Fold this protein.
Amino acid sequence: MTTWFGSFSALLGAAIVLAAGCGNTNNNVTASEGGSDSDATAGPTSAATDGTTTASGSDSDSGETDGTGSASMTSLPTTGEPTSTSNGSATSSTTDPDTTSTTSPVTDGSATDPDTATTIEPGTTTEPGTTTMGESTTTGPDCIPAEEVCNDLDDDCNGVVDDVDVGGDGICDCLNIAIFGNEGANPSAEFQAWLEAQGTQVDRISLDATPIDAVTLEKYDIVILDWLVRTYSADEAAIIKTWIEGGGGLMSMTGHTNNNTVVERPNSIIAPMGLAYNQSKGFFSGPVTQWAMHPITQGITSVSFYGGLYVDITEDGVAVNEVIGTLPQGPVAVGQTRIDGKLFIFGDEWIEFDSEWQQIPQIKQFWVNILGWLSPQNYCTIPQ
């Protein structure tokens, strides 16, 4: 009796062991991920018949969807071979009671970002300032120097955006300049042609009563007031002031004709910022040879001045004004730094005429200095 019961127990134990060993015999692997803090449970969540991995769950990472598994988690390697243990049993995931399931790494080097559920290719970083394969787009520790081009980016990583000067003339090739009003009474084609030849974009606008608005101004880095065709409203002046304070640069000329229009029209723009042309001493001539130390006056000893005006300065507590050039009648060249922008007010217009460009070499250098100083800070500035 004792012998029979012992044999029966042995047979029963063998049957139990044999039943426990039965299972998937074709190396198929299934995995279930429920997203809770419990152990992962192997089971027939979705069928697998070719050695691939499938997964499901509400709290899973987004992953590869290249046919090796479902899109609810990162796929196993695409070889079709499961990860095996030394005893031949198949395993594809490990589970920590305090974490969600993890899978074998993807063999192509890509990874998934659990916050964005998008695939990140090798070499890509989500840090600001870089793009795919580590190519730099902005200044920073990850910036990779490249040839600087006009694209609103600091390609060469020197801290200045679009500082391109192919011709080496000191004029940034990426500047966008608007000239308000008509050309002066004398020919000045050489001046504008010279600007355009440097690669600078130049538009002559405000030739009629069309109002100036912020949308128009945001296209430009520098505005030059030439022979204005009208006065400007208080609203337009306020828009221009805001544009300057935000980083724009404005230059004004006058003296195009001997009447009050060359006073009233530019003053309608610049007077709200504490600078104004004054006709009380009439129109007078130079040249201007008395200069203060300033970036605009570097290399300058004499500049033409025929039938111009002097400039009144009213301190408003916001701007910093500097008298740059002087004649006996008063200041004729004034620079103003206004928050993030700048103004340069000159009391004459002969510096744009072809006759001066052809006869006085310093006129060109004068313009190079003016545009360089007016250029927005850290943008399109050529090192001197």
Observations:
- The two ends are 110 Å apart (CA to CA).
- The chain has two domains: 30-105, 176-374.
- The longest strand covers residues 330-338.
- Confidence is low (pLDDT under 50) at residues 1-137.
